[in-house]
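Weekly puzzle thread! Below is a chain. First person to post its structure in token form gets bragging rights.
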Amino acid sequence: MAELLPFHGLLPSVERASAVAAVPYDVVNTREAAGLAEGNPYSFLHVSRPEIDLEYGIDLHDEKVYRQAGEAFRRLCREVPLTVDAGKHLYLYQLQMGDQVQTGIIGAASAAEYKAGIIKKHEKTRQDKEDDRTRHVMELRSHTGPAFFTYRGKPDIDAVVAKELARTPLFNFTAEDGIRHTLWRIDEATSEKLSELFRTEVPVFYIADGHHRSAAAARTAAECAPKNPNHTGKEDYNYFLTVAFPADQLKILPYNRAVRTLNHHTPATFLTLIGEKFRISPAEDGEVAHSGEFKFYLAHEWYLARPKFDLSKLNVIEQLDVSILQDNVLAPLLGIDDPRTSREIDFIGGIRGTQELIRLVDSKEYAIAFSMHATTVDQLMAIADAGEIMPPKSTWFEPKLRDGLVSHNF
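Winning reply:
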């Protein structure tokens, strides 16, 4: 069964929580991170994107970058300050983006359960990104970026959470992007009760977002254990920071694609070729209403593509909208055989909207952009249950969790 354990959380002062809280390291580039942190010495981006405080253009894997992360973390611990809770707690973390409200439980997940498959994944990880996160975590001796888990909701857990939401929160602020972040500290007795409910009622967790954080946590545990002659498996390094949300509260946005060239095709010949497998018609905009179809923006026009083939004959992976596009358009027509490594394709989170796709193509930096229908949480869990792997960049979750509100030291 799934473990979600109380732990000694590292939290910022109430007065500076909103200044500390920062977007995840992997949703911004260096320039964007520097802009967000400018004028704010308490932003957690000084820890998660430490290159912003070093010479421009430095290799992101340079040892100086990791040392800078450690120095920035220790500085925030002193100056904010960041303080370790005396007791072991779970925490509630609620995010509100417009009408979308989701409430998760922050706790310590087990690296051993990740390795055993009780924490289920649906994506492959890249070695270089695992290396980077492991090095970062080991430098800080802290898990500061939470993994994002989901689980099939349970009434008993929901009832405890509902009661806790009636209490006064510890943090409650609206970030500059309009998303409200609210955090509650759960008392120790209730934390133990909730932890036991997970242990008895929730058989598995699913990684929604944070595959590299989870993999790095498992590597961290494996690296620390041999150095401890009294290792028991219960030490803090055997656990890592996560926020677990019930699946029925989550919303996945599309993960759109933009391709730099038409692979030697003209717009006219591309339309002819794609028409062999899809019914193509002009469209007024880039919004996709139904799974199984997609839209694309080419030569200042939107088009709708509906498959001519029978989707019901495809397997669970092939039926994904991103697979339909990859298998029938990106690979055979545009030469994108491996979207993980190709430099001809970029992925655009649905939060940026279809206007971003228009902008990219009209700028002539890209030749064509594809607007997708979002993958569902049920599809994600079904694929993970089957032990299958989704194509890269299949899901974009919003709203994003903030780093720095709670960290897990070891």
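Puzzle host: Confirmed. Bonus trivia for everyone else. Residues 225 and 233 are 8 Å apart (CA to CA).
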